[in-house]
């Protein structure tokens, strides 16, 4: 019991309330830097240490391999779960939705099917190209068309829209397929994709979740086996849950039947921040987080964590102002900084992209002269294509750096075990051999998407102009609001200092001058 009390040390009152409410549905809405990860990992560790939960029946799901590794590292520090135990059934399981589902599928496959366990498609683009050839009888397929078709197929699948329903839903929801295709034509392509996949004996990423849903619906024994392995479910980043993920977790809990009966296992804790929904393009929506009480209520606890322990009041003030201009601002928490006042947020306008990159490199050198390490600094961009010029400038300034790019939202959720091990070692501050990293890994250049969940002492948020942030020219509405949330996520990565900048033109000659971002 004494050990359990130690686990709660260093939590504030609201965090502690969240960590000690162990039964029934719990919702935690946590602003950026409010200790969301700290709170859920302590909650799990506390519940296991007091004996309230059985570790082997605890499942915590996250959206990326990186987040799952971070959670496992923190749980290991707290004495539960950890790398060695993951998947062995002896400790807490912290995994992505997809790897948890893949494990379950593996566990019940031979009981529900005689066919061999299907292969996971290596390159979905290849299957899409083949499907396009089947439908159009053409071989010269433009990679951009493949990319757009693939995105639409993925969107349809995670939105739970089967081929047979696609046309009807397009009509009802006024949805247009990409590349000016007619819904009927796209449905043919979608069908050809599914057939091509089946003929290869392969499944795609979303099929993992769809298959587990199907098994839970139609195979009561297998469903019971899967359900009994989940006594206590925690879902991180619940604001990014897709309809498919939502369906799966409802089935895990024993609900979602055709009679619409309420979930049977009510030991579910969801954690998220509506202001950090940045995967709407991939079917995510904070709808489920906001209506959690309607679905699972009465709640045992409904907690808001609004104290930002990460960022200075200057950074937090700007983050709040960005959200205050949103039409749906009432959905967002207003943050309060727990820190002493710090540096003013700097704003700089450069003439060209190259000058912006050189200016940022010079400022990083200055910070280093004052004692900062390169890895304390991050340059955040809206898109991958902005990054090269910053790499060149850092190299010219003799600064080491590493690059984080958007690797496609799906590939971040199910990497191979090597990538997953790397992420775990990184989260524990170790290198690939398990030796503590002595060398500074360098300045981070990252897209905002890839920096989600990370924090840096000094953040350079670059390209703060119309066209880049917000990207393109979104009309007021959901697309514009997603860009606003990206700005918020970027700003809130900063601990001590935040530097905003943009360049008037790409190369100094452009006829059109860029205008500052409307969000600032
Ligand atoms: N009660 C607390 N006292 C002191 N520091 C805290 C407390 N809670 C959280 N922190 C610190 O605040 C920072 C953010 O915490 P954590 O990484 O758990 O955040 P998060 O809420 O998951 O972040 P985000 O949602 O922005 O990614 C960390 O450096 C953490 O150590």
From TrEMBL:
This protein's UniProt keywords: ATP-binding, Helicase, Hydrolase, Isomerase, Nucleotide-binding
Pfam families named among the record's database cross-references: UvrD-helicase (PF00580), UvrD_C (PF13361)
Keyword Isomerase: yes
Entry keyword Transit peptide: no
UniProt binding sites for ATP: 30-37
EC nos: 5.6.2.4
Recorded superkingdom: Bacteria
UniProt-recorded Gene Ontology molecular function terms: 3'-5' DNA helicase activity; ATP binding; ATP hydrolysis activity; DNA binding
The UvrD-like helicase ATP-binding domain, residue ranges: 9-312
Any Gene Ontology biological process: recombinational repair
Catalytic activity: ATP + H2O = ADP + phosphate + H(+); Couples ATP hydrolysis with the unwinding of duplex DNA by translocating in the 3'-5' direction
Residue intervals of the UvrD-like helicase C-terminal domain: 313-520
Signal sequence, renumbered to the chain: none
Family designation: Belongs to the helicase family. UvrD subfamily.
Protein name according to UniProt: DNA 3'-5' helicase
Organism this protein belongs to: Bifidobacterium myosotis
């Amino acid at each position: 019991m004494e050990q359990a009390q130690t686990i709660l040390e260093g939590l504030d009152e609201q965090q502690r309330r969240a960590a000690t409410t162990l039964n029934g549905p719990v919702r935690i809405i946590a602003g950026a830097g409010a200790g969301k990860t700290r709170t859920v990992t302590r909650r799990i560790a506390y519940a296991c240490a007091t004996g309230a939960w059985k570790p082997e029946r605890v499942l915590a799901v996250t959206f990326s391999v990186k987040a799952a590794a971070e959670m496992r590292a923190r749980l290991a520090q707290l004495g539960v779960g950890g790398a060695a135990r993951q998947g062995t059934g002896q400790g807490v399981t912290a995994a992505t939705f997809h790897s948890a589902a893949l494990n379950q599928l593996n566990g019940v496959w031979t009981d529900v099917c005689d066919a061999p366990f299907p292969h996971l498609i290596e390159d979905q683009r290849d299957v899409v190209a083949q499907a396009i050839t089947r439908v159009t009888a053409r071989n010269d397929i433009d990679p951009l068309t493949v990319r757009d078709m693939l995105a639409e197929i993925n969107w349809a699948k995670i939105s739970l829209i089967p081929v047979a329903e696609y046309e009807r839903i397009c009509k009802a929801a006024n949805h247009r397929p990409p590349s000016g295709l007619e819904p009927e034509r796209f449905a043919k392509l979608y069908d050809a994709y599914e057939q091509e996949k089946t003929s290869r004996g392969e499944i795609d990423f979303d099929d993992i979740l769809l298959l587990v849903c199907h098994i839970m619906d139609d195979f009561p024994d297998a469903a019971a086996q899967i359900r009994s392995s989940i006594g206590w479910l925690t879902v991180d980043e619940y604001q990014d849950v897709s309809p498919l993920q939502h369906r799966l977790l409802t089935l895990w809990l024993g609900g979602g039947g055709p009679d619409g009966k309420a979930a049977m296992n009510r030991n579910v804790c969801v954690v998220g921040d509506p202001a950090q929904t940045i995967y709407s393009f991939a079917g995510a929506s904070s709808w489920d987080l906001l209506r959690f009480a309607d679905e699972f209520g009465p709640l045992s606890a409904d907690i808001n964590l609004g104290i930002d322990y990460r960022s200075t009041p200057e950074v937090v003030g700007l983050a709040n102002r960005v959200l205050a201009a949103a039409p749906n601002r009432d959905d967002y928490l207003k943050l309060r900084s727990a820190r002493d006042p710090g540096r003013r947020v700097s704003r700089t306008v450069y003439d060209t992209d190259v000058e912006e990159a050189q200016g940022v490199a010079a400022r990083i050198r200055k910070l280093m002269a004052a004692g900062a390490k390169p890895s304390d600094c991050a340059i955040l961009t809206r898109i991958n294509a902005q990054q090269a010029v910053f790499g060149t400038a850092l190299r010219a300034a003799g600064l080491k750096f590493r690059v984080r790019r958007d690797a496609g939202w799906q590939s971040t959720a199910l990497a191979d075990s090597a990538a997953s091990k790397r992420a775990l070692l990184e989260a524990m501050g170790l290198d690939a051999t398990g030796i503590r990293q002595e060398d500074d890994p360098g300045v981070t250049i990252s897209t905002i998407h890839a920096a989600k969940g990370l924090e840096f002492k000094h953040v350079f948020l670059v390209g703060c102009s119309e066209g880049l942030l917000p990207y393109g020219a979104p009309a007021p509405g959901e697309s514009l609001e997603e860009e606003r949330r990206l700005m918020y996520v970027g700003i809130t990565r900063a601990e001590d200092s935040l530097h905003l900048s943009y360049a008037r033109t790409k190369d100094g000659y452009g006829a059109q001058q860029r205008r500052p971002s409307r969000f600032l």
